[in-house]
Amino acid sequence: MVAPKKGKTASAQSKPGRSLALIVIVIAALTGGMFASGHTTPRLGIDLAGGTSITLRAVSEPGQESAINKTNMDTAVDIMNNRVNGLGVSEAEVQTQGDRNIIVNIPKGTNSKEARAQVGTTAKLYFRPVLATELSGAAASGSPTPSASGASDKATDEATDKATDKATDGSTEKATDDGKASATPSDAASASATTQGRAVTDALKADPSPSASAKATGDASPSPSASATGDDATAKLQAQYAALDCTKKADRAKAGNGAKPGDSTVACGQNSQGQWQKYILGPAAVDGTDVDEAKAVFNTQTAAGWTVTMKFTGSGSKKFADITGKLAQNQSPQNQFAIVLDNEVVSDPYVSQALTGGNAEISGSFDQEEAQSLANMLSYGALPLSFKEDSVTTVTAALGGEQLKAGLIAGAIGLALVVLYLLLYYRGLSFIAVASLLVSAGLTYVIMALLGPTIGFALNLPAVCGAIVAIGITADSFIVYFERVRDEIREGRSLRPAVERGWPRARRTILVSDFVSFLAAAVLFIVTVGKVQGFAFTLGLTTLLDVVVVFLFTKPLLTLMARRKFFASGHKWSGLDPKSLGAKPPLRRTRRPSAGPVDPKEA
């Protein structure tokens, strides 16, 4: 019964190289990934690297001044913080100032342009039916203009058929029958063809009884007075559409301003060739609040690349099925719906049948960052207020740099004292401790460098403090193990059995200690905000790495060193000298003489 156990122990002792090889492979893979990504240094926070500070002022809609209140401002701060600092470690800060201002601090190294767009945009999403669309600006030169009298039915039908054929056969932006709508802005050719002759006038005025807007949404016929009002609105909208030049930033910024969800409006968007198109859109059929979930995914089944998938709520699925069912009965472009984000058309897919799956997919010329940004805004919701950018200033890192220098000096002094203590007290064992500290430091550095581009982690001053505190946690684990081994030697055991017998007891102590430390870091991370989260995150990360290093490096290395004569013989400089440790002599049993047969003569 005892022999297999001894054999197992011997086998475990003879293969510590496997654990060392594993951690070497892990370090090499992480280091290779760091260099391959091009991020060879950790991303620094705003207090260490400087950055950008943005001041946003809340702007209410006319007649809704009461909307600027503490509740809405706090909600806006939470949403902005989720957009730019979803995991709490990117070092971006969002906080209120006064009763209507929000300050956003973005560290250097972050895409400040993208971050500014994320924090300022309201992310108001609507799905609107397309009534008319064509190329805008210089790109539209040579395209036929809308005709007041209309083109002949034959010419119009041919143009429409060509556009429809192109959309059906050659476009990647048509809605599919699997419950998903591919959503890339449509090609210019199909758009310009369908706007020939009656693109504007027929879409808005051909049927005055039920207007084009009402037709798109299935509303009842308006009254005569409403028809007169509708004619005025149609003329105004037509004039806006004719004057709109989407190649001009100023025109794009004004397009659709003031339009309510129930109104028809004009908008701009870019097609797959990067050309600007202008649109006349009907009333919103589906609201952004009907989107239950949005994710950025890489589509490996098609050439779409990065896409944003959306899942609708129960009511949203019904609305989406209703509008796509109605649009499917129309000809191009009125069989398209526009996905409008903050008055800009991001997609305008074709619809050939009702989509009842409750899902939609926005595809286009997205890269990973753009897809994740869009999904992030849709997932975290719309801001309850509109904001105007009042000022953008650059923050220097002069003060933070001095504090970092002081912190690094303090850390170096602390590390030097730890190493000095190890050398004086543990002597030869200090080699194993220092090597373990170096491995832990290397892993921490590489992982922090990789976390910058992956989750937006930024190293700030509190995070540096967390890393310095981790030196003591890691050194404590080594000391616990070394003392367990020394206790076994004091009991009279030789080094190799002492290393193996001391490990189970030390392992339990190390795991309990690290669990308490990690639990404290996790609680601190959850209940705090801002820079303190950086301290908690770093402390938790280094605590986990301590477990990895002790199990995969310190223990196997000590097992190998125990086979060396310097340590195994108990050299006085090894730190394991039995005499200096006060070891007891081995306990030996004395055999009692066995009672033999009694000599009859003696009896």
| Shape designation | elongated
Largest sheet data: 5 strands, mixed, barrel
Distance between the termini: 45 Å
Q: Which runs of at least 5 residues are low in confidence (pLDDT < 50)?
A: 1-13, 142-201, 205-226
Give the neighbour order of strands across the main sheet: 4-6-5-11-10
Average pLDDT over all residues: 74
Structural account:
This protein is elongated. The strands form three sheets. A five-stranded mixed barrel has the order 4-6-5-11-10. It has a four-stranded antiparallel β-sheet with strand order 2-3-1-13. Helix 2 packs antiparallel against helix 18, helix 16 runs parallel beside helix 18 and helix 17 packs antiparallel against helix 18. The longest helix is centred in the C-terminal third of the chain and has 33 residues. The two termini are 45 Å apart. It is α+β, with helices and mostly antiparallel strands. It is built from 20 helices and 13 strands.
What's a quick, concise take on this entry?
Helices cover 51% and strands 14% of the residues.
